[in-house]
Amino acid sequence: MTKGNDYGRVLGKVKSIQNAIFAAVSILVLSAVLIVTAVSMKYTRSSIFENSVVYTRTIIHQMNQNIDSYIDYMDNIASMLAESEDAQQYLFSEMEGGNARYRLHTEAESKEIRDRLLSQYTAILKGRDDIKNLGILRIGGNYLINEGTQHLNPNLDIRTQEWYQKAMECQEESGLTSSHVQHAIEGERPWVITLSRRIPNTLEHKGGNDGAFFIDLNYSAISELCDQNSIGEKGYVFILDEEGNVVYHPQQQQLYNELQTENIETVMNADSDTVLTDDGDNGKLYTLSRSERTGWTVVGCTNVAELMKRSKQAQSIYLLTTIVLVVVSLMLSSAIAKNITLPIQRLRDSMARVQEGDFEAADVEVVSENEIGSLTTSFNVMTHRIQELMEQNIYEQEEKRKSELKALQSQINPHFLYNTLDSIIWMAEGKKNEEVVLMTASLARLLRQSISNEDEVVSVGQEVEYARSYLTIQKMRYKDKLEFRIEVAPEISSVHIIKLVLQPIIENAIYHGLKYKESKGLLIIRGYAKENNAVLEIIDNGVGMSKETLDHIFEKHKVNYHSNGVGVYNVQKRLQLYYGNDYGIIYQSEKGKGTVATIHIPIPGKQEDGNEEA
Amino acid sequence: MKKHNQITEEHTAHGVRNPGRCKKWFLLIIVIVLAGVLCICGCWWGQKDSKDKWSLVYIPKTQDGTNDFWTSLISGAHMAAREYEVSLDIMAPEREQDVEKQNELLTQAIEEKPDAILISPSSFTASNELLEEAKKKGISITFVDSYTEENIQDLTVATDNLEVGRKLGKYVRQMMEPDTQIAVVSHVKGVSTAVERELGFREGLGDLSENIVEVMYCNSQYDKSYDLTMDLMEKYPNLQVIAGMNEYSSVGAARAVKDCGAENWIQVVGVDSSQEAVELMEQGVFRALVVQKAFKMGYVGVRETVRMLNGEAVDKDIDSGSELVTLENMYTSENEKLLFPFNSIRQE
């Protein structure tokens, strides 16, 4: 595996179907999630705002009703006390009509009336903490306040007081005076809300002025009513009267001391029942509810920043959910993409192996019955067919090679046989017994080796012995013309070599080199190991070859023509068929000096390492 | 041989590539999750603001139930402390003129090492060394109502006393004849408030300031003021105006005038209001009162001190304001708010 290939594969990953599916699903899911989030984020703000406005409005409306019913309740107490017979009797039984002074009751009777009233007042004061004062009075006449121990402020003209004026203006109902200081009672000046009623004189003898009933409310009940429902952490409720004066405010003391301000003008000028002041972060939301009964306005004030905080919380929850969703969807889409493309990838990997020629592990498991499943099945079938064909092909090639090899090596030069036999006959006729024996023995060895030996491969030692037999015969035939020497290193004698390699080359050297030499020729067979190869050299000092001859030495027809078949072409062809094109014969020759034929064959034990390095 | 080698290599390559991809995804997921967590954390963090609880000590001149000025001031200070969530200790001498006791309390307060001391010094000079020591210890000093000769404070919250005197002087000026005799009953000689009010009073009187026949000091005691006024009325039978310079002196003087039944020809004007002062005004003894905004002073004193400790920019000199109240306008809503403390809600 080369580096270039590696890059190609990485590039292939980027463009892979898995990534394409993953990208598509991710983009789809992501955009869906993001759009939903964006929309909900946008609407959260307004809807939370909307909700709190509605909620606050409900609460404020409820409070307004509560305050109305509270005032109604107090009004009932007021009317009950104001319209009582005892009050009438107490205020008007002692009247100055013109010059005369009427007294309706005796001292004891008066005291009884007073005691009855007092016990009533005391009972009410005890029962209700929110009533600061209550009492009846008539300017210039009797008065009775609380438990009867307190007195009217002697330095104050009660007629100047708003609550008194309001009582006198009203006929049947009570007058309501918002927050003010009650100056009428000697000794203390509390801030109160006053309900006051006119008490008309219904007794027989008319004359004099009307009386008044008043009930002073402190803020405990109203503050309780206003604080019972919280409208947010920083939200609060306050009440304004018709003129915009503060009736109740949780920070009334600070307001009165100029330490706080309230946007009263904004509230009083409001057209709708919600007003939003926009002061950046300090914006406030005012929710108004005006009461017909009291004329007061109950105002709920909420901090906009607080509302925003709530919407921010909601938004951060959305955001978190989005992130989780995105992560999950990314993982899911990755898983889906992987699931879909895994069989394809397996198929591809298997195809790559097949491409490399590996059919063994090519079978791909069929996981599902879908398109890819059938594709895989087809691929498997195809691979098996290819494998079969390949195997068949290899077998046929082998067979072909073998038969070719056989055909090549079976070609022994028959002329040599005839000539040798002729030589033997002549020698026998010349009674050269010894020579005949030697030549016949050599021929016999030669024939045994070439014909009777069925093996394709022999050892170098055997091959050299074969060459020796052949040379021995030729030496005897060419007597004074040929001398030979064999110098083969014993370490290569066991190396395997295809048979009939040396003999044709020697034959070639004799017939084309040494035969034409005037003087005696020498032929040397040298064998040694060089690096991982066994090298056999056939050296002759014959006439040599021209460059032209050398160039055409391996051509089939030429060699065939001269040497009846078994020739250099044959040997070269066989060597290369058997060992591959890296091996074979190399000829070196110089005209007039001789020829060297070098045969390279691999030494099997060392061959492997050499290949690894190559 | 060759084939086998290739297969092995291929397998190895796949084995390496797969974890690599997983790692990349893990990284991405972790980054996204981290970003999300950071986002949320940021949101929560932003909402949380840590606020140190400052400890404050206020040393008024006195804490006297009969004196509405100090009562109001202290309740204002308490309310601000509650609202701004700081601790506030009030350490007060029983009598206003007790300089020694006040210094003793100051020493004690310095030992407690609060973040800030608010003080209404009873003396113009006697607390200098102690205040300097407090300063050295890193305690912030806020002057409330009065100050000392040395500019040692970080903050002053007080009524503009020159203005108080000026208002009173102007009011007296418009109702007096050229030969009207005026007596001043002041509270403590040398104290900043007394000095400034008298100065302002003279300014308000303008050319008639020479009509002041005498200035007396009652040392912030009703009884002494009462006695001094009696003496004055005896000494100057033609006396027509008596001006008190604080609650003790004003009310003491008014009591004396009332007891003599002299309210018809002696006009009493004063500074600060109380329940009794209001009644005396209704009875026609007091013609006018310049009322300080005591509650506001106490509240602002604490609020600004806290803001200063928080490192916010604050004004170094804050005037809490004053109003002239007469019988004619005392029942208006504005003056009611000023004269009568609103404390009906949440009496804690």
Rg result of chain A: 66 Å
CATH topology of the largest domain in chain B: Rossmann fold
Separation of termini of chain A? 15 Å
CATH architecture assignment of the largest domain in chain B: 3-Layer(aba) Sandwich
Number of domains of chain B: 2
How is the biggest beta sheet of chain B arranged?
A: 6 strands, parallel
Which superfamily, in CATH terms, is the homologous superfamily of the largest domain in chain B? Answer: Response regulator
Mean pLDDT of chain A, as a whole number?
A: 81
The best one-word shape of chain B is elongated
Q: In terms of per-residue confidence, which ranges of chain A show pLDDT below 50 for 5 or more consecutive residues?
A: 558-565, 607-614
Largest beta sheet of chain B: what is the strand line-up? 2-1-3-4-5-11
State the end-to-end CA separation of chain B.
98 Å
Q: How many DSSP E strands of chain A?
A: 19
Radius of gyration of chain B: 32 Å
What's the helical proportion of residues of chain B? Answer: 40-55%
**Category from helices, strands and their pairing of chain A:** alpha+beta
Counting helices, strands and paired strands, the structural category of chain B is alpha/beta
Strand content of chain B: 15-25%
